[in-house]
Amino acid sequence: MANPLRREVRQLYKNLLYLGREYPQGADYFRERLNSAFMKNKYVTDPKEIRKLVDCGEDVIKELGTMYYLREYSIMKKRFYEEELLGLLNIGRPTD
């Protein structure tokens, strides 16, 4: 593997490992799956094929970012509507 590609592959692995800390099924589950995916392609030496795999990994990073964003958005939305519902029912607010 050429040095620039090697650096990109290592950086991709590190980025995915970092993003996997908040994976819904747990960081250990994500790390095992990530490690097995990288080990499966360990013997790929064609630069074009490595580039294709790196691009696929970058797409996974985008998907994980979207998944985390949607999860955060749904939590915020739930909190907002809970507060709005409590306000409509006058629960938890002092009355005059």
TrEMBL record:
Pfam families: Complex1_LYR. CDD domains: Complex1_LYR_ETFRF1_LYRM5 (cd20265). It comes from the Eukaryota. Residues 7-60 form the Complex 1 LYR protein domain. One of its GO terms (biological process) is respiratory electron transport chain. GO terms for cellular component: mitochondrion. Signal peptide: none annotated. Belongs to the complex I LYR family. PANTHER family: ELECTRON TRANSFER FLAVOPROTEIN REGULATORY FACTOR 1, GROWTH HORMONE-INDUCIBLE SOLUBLE PROTEIN-RELATED. This is Complex 1 LYR protein domain-containing protein. It comes from Oncorhynchus tshawytscha.
